[in-house]
C-alpha cells in the first residue's frame, strides 16, 4: 500500500498559497448607511517575520470601525492578512501598512486597529492606530 503524496511535486503553489498571493481587501455596500454602528473583527493568528532575525512574530489583530459606504468582506480580509506571513517587516511598518490598506479599501468614518504582538525574548509590543472621528 503506497502513501499518497500530499505535496505538489511540480513545485507549483498550492491553491491556498495562490489565493493568499492574489489577495486584496474586498468590500461590499454598507447595508444600512443611515445607521451609525460599529463593527469589530478579531484576527488572532497574524504572523510576519522580524526583519532583523527572520524569526516569526505572532500577533492578534483587532479592527474596530464605523462603516461609511463600504463594509469589509471577511474572507478577503483573512487572505489579505495571511499574505504577511513570510514578509520580513517591522511591527510598526506592518501595522501602518495594514491601516493604510484598510482606509483605502473602505474609507470608514472611524477606525481603530490594535495589534497585540506575542512576547519574544521577554518583550511584548502593542500598537494602536486610529483614524477619523467616532460618531455617536
Provide structural commentary:
- With about 140 residues, the protein is of the alpha+beta class.
- The chain has a single domain, classed as GTP Cyclohydrolase I, domain 2, CATH 3.30.1130.
- The protein has 3 helices and 6 strands; from the N terminus they run H-E-E-E-E-H-H-E-E.
- The strands form 2 sheets. It has a 4-stranded antiparallel beta sheet with strand order 2-3-5-6, with helices on one face. The chain has a two-stranded antiparallel sheet with strand order 1-4.
- Strand 2 and strand 3 form a beta hairpin.
- The longest helix has 16 residues.
- The relative contact order is 0.20.
Task: Report the CATH superfamily.
Answer: GTP cyclohydrolase I, C-terminal domain/NADPH-dependent 7-cyano-7-deazaguanine reductase, N-terminal domain
Largest sheet: 4 strands, antiparallel
The secondary-structure class comes to: alpha+beta
Strand order of the main beta sheet, please?
2-3-5-6
Provide a compact summary of the structure:
Helices cover 24% and strands 36% of the residues. The protein has three helices and six strands; from the N terminus they run H-E-E-E-E-H-H-E-E. The strands form two sheets. The chain has a four-stranded antiparallel sheet with strand order 2-3-5-6, covered by helices on one side. It has a two-stranded antiparallel ribbon with strand order 1-4.
Amino acid at each position: 500500500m503506497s502513501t499518497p503524496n500530499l505535496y505538489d511535486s511540480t513545485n507549483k503553489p498550492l491553491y491556498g498559497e495562490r489565493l493568499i498571493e492574489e489577495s486584496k481587501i474586498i468590500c461590499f455596500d454598507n447595508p444600512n448607511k443611515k445607521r451609525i454602528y460599529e463593527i469589530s473583527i478579531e484576527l488572532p493568528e497574524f504572523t510576519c517575520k522580524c526583519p532583523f532575525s527572520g524569526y516569526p512574530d505572532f500577533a492578534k489583530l483587532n479592527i474596530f470601525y464605523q462603516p461609511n459606504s463600504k463594509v469589509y468582506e471577511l474572507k478577503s480580509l483573512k487572505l489579505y492578512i495571511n499574505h504577511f506571513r513570510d514578509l520580513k517587516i517591522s511591527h510598526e511598518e506592518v501595522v501602518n501598512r495594514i491601516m493604510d490598506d484598510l482606509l483605502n479599501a473602505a474609507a470608514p468614518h472611524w477606525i481603530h486597529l490594535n495589534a497585540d504582538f506575542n512576547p519574544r525574548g521577554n518583550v511584548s509590543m502593542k500598537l494602536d492606530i486610529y483614524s477619523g472621528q467616532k460618531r455617536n
